[in-house]
Amino acid sequence: MVSSWGFAVETAGDGQEALDKLSSNQINVLVTDLMMPRMDGFELLKRITSQGSYPPAIVLTAFGNIETAIQTMHDLGAFWFLEKPIQPSALRLLLERAASQSRLAEETERLQRQLTYQGVLVDLVGASPQMQQVFSLIRQVAPSKAAVLIAGESGTGKELVARAIHHLSPRRGGPFVAINCAAMPETLMESELFGHEKGAFTGAVERRAGCFELSQHGTLLLDELAEMPVGTQAKLLRVLEDSRVRRLGGKSEIAVDVRIIASTNKVLEEALAKGELREDLFYRLNVFRIDLPPLRTRIGDLPVLVSSLITLLNRKHGCRVTEAEPNVIEILQRHNWPGNVRELRNILERAVIIAGEGTITTHHLPHDFGAPAGSRVPVPVNEPDTVRLPVGTTVGEAEKALIMLTLKHTKNNKSRAAEILGISLKTLFNKLKEYGAQEAAMEA
Ligand SMILES: Nc1ncnc2c1ncn2[C@@H]1O[C@H](COP(=O)(O)OP(=O)(O)OP(=O)(O)O)[C@@H](O)[C@H]1O
Ligand SMILES: [Mg+2]
User: Fold this and answer.
1) How close is the Cα of 220 to the center of ligand 2, in Å?
2) What secondary structure does DSSP assign to 19-63, as a single string?
3) Which of 196, 244, 266, 409 is the most buried (most CB within 10 A)?
4) What is the pTM of this model?
5) What ligand is nearest to the CA atom of residue 162?
């Protein structure tokens, strides 16, 4: 009957045979019974969903029970269900809808891939070979439920990668929850992760769901994993193994279906050696690892990053900046970027706001940006009442920095400052007038 509607049909006698055929044929829509010998429909759907991308499935059931129907649709991600005996017209309509969804998914995949070659994956930008490799890893791991460990310096885009994985996975319709594991005492951290019952500890005035429950059928990002208390890491490992959580003070366990992504800006091997990260947890998560390269090692990405960030920041601030001038790009490419893409974004955010429209010129960069280290204005360091004078500082700059700091120290008492500096009050006034004029000239 289905072939007579113009579909090419493959048949299978049971779940096992279907699984074999699915792996060797290009299948766009699956129609399956629930009760079958060897492998039933529940198991079949569970197997194919765990393999990542799968065709929409129409489930046939003899038990027109709304609960089973909801369970199959919700837990197994079925496209739709039909009660037996089936009505041919209903099946035909569903098959056509499912087939068109399948075609759309393929088209999206093709477009995604094309964009990737142009250096864009979801919100990530990068045309360098290193980033292309990262994109390919993301695309490979996204469709599965595998845990992912993302390592990279601060500002390299770890959170963006986690969001891209979620977005490209079959869980994209589910929640994406991020929890920062740094700076939280153990009890609070565990209550955040696993939830608690009323009265579980002092301050637990109400029952509260944890992040695992909140990310049900979605993705949970454990940010700064190496900062998580080691005791909590052990509990986390147990949840990863069993897919069940127990709220603090709770009696029963709750089954959770959550994809875990962990990130850290520490060098993993060091965190392991120092005992900050449990080895067993590390090995459980390290199955799939993505190392994000620092910006300074892929400086060729800078031009594409600049133009995509300008677009983003224009939208955010209602500006109409078109591009950065070539000499600005040159200056930016010479910088070392210890804060990586976040630092670049901050510099550009300031520039876009100041420029408002037109092009970004060197005037829109912080005034000491990109200058050789020596010619930068000396800055007060952490010890108060100290100025740092790197080699290359001019006498004039050093003098100004010392005068300003001394004034700050005397709470702007000029005669006192002149006394400390060993100069006359008149000289101090002249200097200040000079600096004032410099500043006015700079602003003009
Ligand atoms: N490849 C990229 N393409 C576009 N934007 C990026 C990229 N990488 C990072 N960014 C931007 O840089 C900023 C920092 O990224 P993100 O928050 O993902 O960094 P992170 O690695 O999680 O940093 P931290 O360790 O400090 O939390 C974000 O504003 C993001 O938009
Ligand atoms: Mg982050």
Assistant:
1) 13
2) HHHHHHS--S-EEEESS-SSS-HHHHHHHHHHTS----EEEEESS
3) 196
4) 0.70
5) 1
Nearest CA to ligand 1 atom 24: 154
Ligand 1 atom nearest 159 alpha carbon: 18
Ligand nearest to the CA of 316: 1
- pLDDT band for 52, please (50, 70, 90 cuts): low
* Nearest Cα residue to 325 out of 298, 353, 297, 365: 365
Report the alpha-carbon distance of residue 103 to residue 111 in Å, rounded. Answer: 12
Count of CB atoms situated within 10 Å of the CB of 155: 20
- Alpha-carbon dihedral 16, 17, 18, 23, rounded to 10 degrees: 100
What pLDDT is stored for residue 82 in this prediction? 85
Least confident of 91-95, 124-128, 261-265, 419-423: 419-423
CA distances from 311 to 125, 317, 320 (A): 12, 10, 9
Q: Find tokens 């909140």 and name the residue.
A: 214
Mutate to test the pocket of ligand 1, among 125, 137, 150, 156 (most ligand atoms within 8 A of CB): 156
Which ligand 1 atom is nearest residue 126's CA?
1
Reduce the DSSP state of residue 349 to 3 states and report it. Answer: helix
Contact, 348 vs 331, CB < 8 A? no
Query: In the prediction, which pLDDT does 323 show?
Result: 93
Instruction: Decide if pLDDT at 230 tops 60.
Output: yes
